């Protein structure tokens, strides 16, 4: 498909009610995830209004300010952060996936299954797939859909919470930005300032050593071109950057148009792919755009719409952009996925292992467009087989397993309070659609307990010390007197689009509409116009 395919032809909206085949679970990033702790949430209290604040001086910092802003800059586009109450905190219940997809490859070792369990294999029906639908598109009802105006609620910039997690930052405006402190215009210009939390407020210092204090700061960049940007601790961002103290740290919010936001998301989520996988970049752009709009206002109490990490979508700002992903964003500009005239929950993950998962994995009701579907090619091979997580296994001694589960039980399943010493048996009681585990029974010396669905990933962590979560909830367990072997498929929650599968389908010539409909049945592709 040519890069300007959708620019030259009317957008085709495909409604689908067909059976789809192919894929398995990985996290929602094409790069292999990094081991480590989940991103730390932004928590804390609002600034103390009783603290004495200095009046911000006019024209004092070395930003080569003019006396008055030019006419093009004399408009107030600043969106003020809402107050955050002292008891506001980000609940871990909001976090759908902790996997950090921005780091180097996770070193997950493929353990040999011991001789005692050599006959262990995944049941045949796990991999059994119906005949591949060669004429998939022909089985789908196709209809031309007019372009629609962007709904009023979405005609604004997106606000992204940046996870710097620090009490001190250095900011630089490359060309000219408007500076506001405490909602007051201070001037416009370029230069560098440092900001740190001091006594519940922000202490702002210019490179010439001039200092003042404020409750909030905003650098408004009216020119979102590559040449003009705001740099924070050497990371570059388009648009406006707002800062305020929160819980002893600096809360940083980046406000910018959705299409520019997506340019910093697509390569961070699916990778910097070459032109042979351009349709994969387009698929990621449409899924990420749909997700972004769907989550407008979802974190309003925190002062922004989405996080910049795997709690929502990995956003790397201007520093993470690349030419081909940017082109994919432009070629799909405004295209979103709808179901019953509503934006869908466009979940995606890294590797499905040959079959996607159902929302029941999270203990939620199934949705018609987020069904568990096979994701294999015409030979019955998983589209995501190139991933190192297409198949995986871990082996534990009973002592290791007992220690890991005991340590992480309170985090993954806080309702279970049992002070055991040793686990003697682990039994999978049932399976959910998409072959993910349902309820798992843990037998201990102090009693038994059950853990459901995806929560088992946070308890049955990697040996020997539980440093990483289990790659996915698609697994079986084999036991012997020495310990346990867990053999599974995929990486991530497995719901929705399989990013490694997307890459393979794109290389086989699938266009982005066909790719998306194979993961999100019964949706419509609609183009929102400005």
Number of distinct beta strands: 25
Taken from the alpha-carbon principal axes, the silhouette is: globular
Uncertain runs? 1-145
Q: CA-to-CA gap between the ends? A: 25 Å
The pLDDT mean sits at: 76
Biggest sheet: strands, sense, closure? 11 strands, mixed
- Tell me the helix content: 10-25%
Strand content: 25-35%
List the helices and strands and how they pair.
Elements: H1 5-8, E1 12-15, H2 124-127, E2 141-144, E3 148-149, E4 158-162, E5 168-181, E6 184-198, E7 201-206, E8 211-214, E9 217-220, E10 230-232, E11 235-237, E12 240-246, E13 249-256, H3 258-263, H4 266-270, H5 278-294, E14 306-307, H6 323-331, E15 335-339, E16 342-343, E17 348-349, E18 392-397, H7 398-412, E19 423-428, E20 439-444, E21 447-452, E22 475-480, E23 483-488, E24 497-498, H8 499-507, H9 512-519, E25 524-529
What can you see in these coordinates?
The chain has helices spanning 5-8, 124-127, 258-263, 266-270, 278-294, 323-331, 398-412, 499-507, 512-519, and strands at residues 12-15, 141-144, 148-149, 158-162, 168-181, 184-198, 201-206, 211-214, 217-220, 230-232, 235-237, 240-246, 249-256, 306-307, 335-339, 342-343, 348-349, 392-397, 423-428, 439-444, 447-452, 475-480, 483-488, 497-498, 524-529. The strands form 6 sheets. Strands 4, 5, 6, 7, 8, 9, 10, 11, 12, 13 and 14 form an 11-stranded mixed beta sheet that branches. A 4-stranded mixed beta sheet has the order 3-25-15-16. The two termini are 25 Å apart. It has a domain at 158-256. Helix 5 packs across helix 6. It is built from 9 helices and 25 strands. It is globular. The chain is α+β, with helices and mostly antiparallel strands.
